[in-house]
Write a structure and sequence with these properties.
Length: about 40
């Protein structure tokens, strides 16, 4: 089984930040992830 890299709370925080208008590319660089991982 694959272990999740980010906790559920972190994922919810990312989604809230994108809803508030923050760019996905900025969030990905801040959290150290690729945009394709974000899309999944």
């Amino acid at each position: 089984m694959k272990i999740a890299r980010y906790a559920d709370a972190q994922i919810m925080d990312l989604l809230k930040q994108t809803e508030s208008g923050m760019r996905v590319s900025e969030l990905c660089s801040e959290y150290g992830m690729r945009s394709t991982s974000f899309d999944k």
